[in-house]
Amino acid sequence: MRLEPAIEKPTTLGLALTHDGQVTRLKWHRLRRRMTDPLFGAEAMAQGFALGASMELDLRVRRDGGFVVLHDEFLEGETTGEGRIADFALNELKAFHFEDSRPLIFTEDLAAMLQKANPKALLQFDMKDDLAALGSNGLGHLTALFSETPTPVIVSGASLELIVEISLRLPNLLRGIDPTDKLVEIYRQDGLKAVEADLRADLRGPTQPHTVYLAWELILKAAAEGLDLIGLCHAEGKLVDAWTFTLKDPERGFSDEEWQDFYALLALNPDQISTDEAIATERAWLQRLGD
Fold it and tell me: Is the domain of 41 the same as that of 131?
């Protein structure tokens, strides 16, 4: 299949790629347009909201039921604090910063920023805790802050039980699931037929996902063996995010091996690709097509 660009005025904003008449969004993984950007940068998020970008951040529940934008369970490694995040309330967490001295970001901040965002923007809340950890306080906090957000928000997480519960309280939010780890294990034990059956069950299950997040390596491996995971999702009316394709050398662009993989991935028509190098990926794509 030949991929033809349909871009009249090439830009490198890191928002999307156009190929064969299809548009694939580039999602800013952990709020990064470049790997050199700070982790979960408020400045990059503000830029994304202005441009209408697709972005992702991680949420960890606080002791008071609110959330802080962090990936790990513990404060060490990402912040100046120490200890389990769920043991701290908002005012206590405000005493800590990211390791580069930036203030932490809380759901209260997100709710305010979303009110002014470009309606074309999409913000993914990747929930790192399960339903038991959130409890009624966490669910109530989300409901109070995001029941009327004007900017599209998609909530994803490993806990399908949590996604279902959030959907009942916040039907205005989109839902996402990531069955990658489970599908990889099923493939190892039972093969591709079992992978297909399990994924189809999830697509038709109670989460009613808007988007399915799948590792790009799994997508290509399955395709090479005759199973089009993206096509399967599309047939069920679901979008697919292929994660996380990040150029090893953003200045030089695609290596030959990376280009082969990326070209094959785009040929399968993912709706979105997660990356830590959105600008460099778009630039490298245009350069390759112009060679």
Answer: yes
Mean pLDDT of all residues belonging to the chain: 94
Between CA 1 and CA 234 the distance in angstroms is: 19
Which residues, 6+ apart, have CB-to-CB distance to 219 below 8 Å? 229, 230, 240, 242, 265, 268, 270
Q: Which of 110, 166, 123, 160 is nearest to 143 (CA)?
A: 166
b/e sequence 227-255, b meaning 16+ C-beta within 10 Å: bebbebbbeeebbbbbbbbbbeebeebbe
pLDDT at residue 7 tops 80 = no
pLDDT value of residue 11: 63
In a domain, 114, yes or no: yes
In a domain, 9, yes or no: no
Total number of domains constituting the chain: 2
Residue ending a domain, among 144, 176, 208, is 176
| Terminal Cα-to-Cα distance of the chain (whole angstroms) | 18
Distance, CA of 143 to CA of 210 (rounded, Å): 19
Residues 61 and 88 both lie in one domain:
yes
Angle (CA) 183-174-13 rounded to 5° is 90
Strand 54-61 with 67-68, pairing: antiparallel
194 shares a domain with 238: yes
Q: Would you report the helix, strand and coil content of the chain in percent, each value rounded to 5?
A: 40, 20, 40
- What does the block give as tokens for 40? 């979960």
For residue 217, what are the domain limits?
178-291
Do 63 and 118 belong together in one domain? yes
Q: What is the value of pTM for the model shown?
A: 0.93
* Residue 81, SS3 per DSSP: coil
What would the pLDDT profile of 112-144 be if each residue is shown by its tens digit? 999 999 999 999 999 999 999 999 999 999 999
The tens digit of pLDDT for each residue in 28-43 reads: 999 999 999 999 999 9
